[in-house]
Amino acid sequence: MAVQRIVIENCAIATVDAGDTEYASGHIVVADNKIESVGAGKAPENLENVVRRVDGTGHLATPGLVNTHHHFYQWITRGLATDHNLFNWLVALYPTWARIDERMAYSAAQGSLAMMARGGVTTAMDHHYVFPKGSGDLSGAIIRAARETGVRFTLARGSMDRSEKDGGLPPDFAVETLEGALAATEATVDEHHDASFDSMTQVAVAPCSPFSVSTELMKQGAELARRKGVRLHTHGSETVEEEQFCKELFGMGPTDYFESTGWLGEDVWMAHCVHMNDSDIAAFARTKTGVAHCPSSNARLAAGIARVPDMLAAGVPVGLGVDGTASNESGELHTELRNALLINRLGAHREAALNARQALRLGTFGGAQVLGRASQIGSLEAGKLADLVLWKLDTLAHASIADPVTALVFGAAAPVTLSLVNGRPVVEDSHLLHVDEDAIARSTRDEAQRLARIAAQA
């Protein structure tokens, strides 16, 4: 079958390539699911099989946003425990989360994915770690929702085996056994992980956190991931209390504990990493361990401010994460570009801690690095997959800001005129093409109410 091309012209372009190449007015040619060319001015003449031409006047084209940390199921528990720190928040919500089932997980995934996709996310991930007994095929439901939405997706198959009786936070009936968690995780990798260049679904091994997972699950989880050739993900150094917990239980801080269990390396990324000292950052830089920075969630739970500028200066790969919508109710990643920049400037003489282009890189190429897909996505370059977003910047919200990247990052959330994933349109004029937003809104409301009733009766 002949190659089919989409041509986008007359737009500003931020490629986020190694040289941060930008064009004030340029073109992008997409051939099937890959970028064929990017450059200044009009597209080459006499291109064959052009099935669509897009006039990008008044727009900025960027790589699609890449989300590196999320908990989709939390979509149906938004707005609860709004004045709690992390540990108290978990204690308040675990009894409710422990009642989720397959229908709830599917609906919550639909809501989380729809919100991100219409805001420019082309690659999403979900760290799902709550598997109550008899709850159904939660992983399959989440993957099905991602496939229907049309985004590229990584499922971080989580697990917990340290419950309240073992000194953890989750209720006893909400955790798996060590053997059960490892077997289910391996089965999920075998069934769903696709390692191909243009893969739409990948799976990572993702025990939840040091305070809900045994040391043996951490160690054997790392061994499983490396035997299967997949990535590893968990929460790390999120709060002061976590650091105290690790020192009391393991006799060392979180980073040393992770290293002792095989959890530092270029195939690993951690969520949050708020409380990192110089030696922690150096260890992450030395091992190329990645970080998912979640500024809104860190602020919502009063966890603190991650040292992102110091991490970047040391060479640590850093991407952005929405985190679960029970700790970031907006559920949007494009607002995290702005929040990352602003929060990392808090404090005296920090006006240059992060700039607009660094924030955009965090949300695109940085995320691709963290997910292990930097050779495929994260920048607009010939040969890479056609995951891109066309942001409308000529309305009242942005029209008086001369620099388009500054407008996108510093300004109000910009509308998405076009989003392509794998060369396929997913969003047009701020509307999702493959799923019904109104139906999803009704479904998530109904499932949230059903979960609340079940939890109240427990």
Describe the protein's architecture and organization.
This protein has 458 residues and is α/β, with parallel strands linked by helices. Helices cover 36% and strands 21% of the residues. The chain contains 14 helices and 17 strands. The strands form 3 sheets. Strands 1, 2, 3, 4, 5, 14, 15, 16 and 17 form a 9-stranded mixed beta sheet that branches. The chain has a 4-stranded parallel beta sheet with strand order 6-7-8-9. Strands 10-11-12-13 form a 4-stranded parallel beta sheet. A hairpin with a 2-residue loop joins strand 15 and strand 16 (424-428). The longest helix has 21 residues, at 437-457. The chain is globular. It starts with a strand and ends with a helix.
Summed up:
With 458 residues, the protein is an alpha/beta fold. Helices cover 36% and strands 21% of the residues.
How does the SSE layout of this entry go?
Blueprint: E1 5-14, E2 22-31, E3 34-40, E4 50-55, E5 59-63, E6 65-66, H1 86-97, H2 102-117, E7 121-128, H3 138-149, E8 152-159, H4 178-192, E9 201-207, H5 215-228, E10 232-236, H6 240-250, H7 254-260, E11 268-272, H8 278-287, E12 290-293, H9 295-300, H10 308-314, E13 318-320, H11 334-343, H12 356-370, E14 388-392, H13 404-410, E15 416-421, E16 424-428, E17 431-432, H14 437-457
Parallel strand pairs: 1-4, 1-5, 6-7, 7-8, 8-9, 10-11, 11-12, 12-13
Antiparallel strand pairs: 1-2, 2-3, 5-14, 14-15, 15-16, 16-17
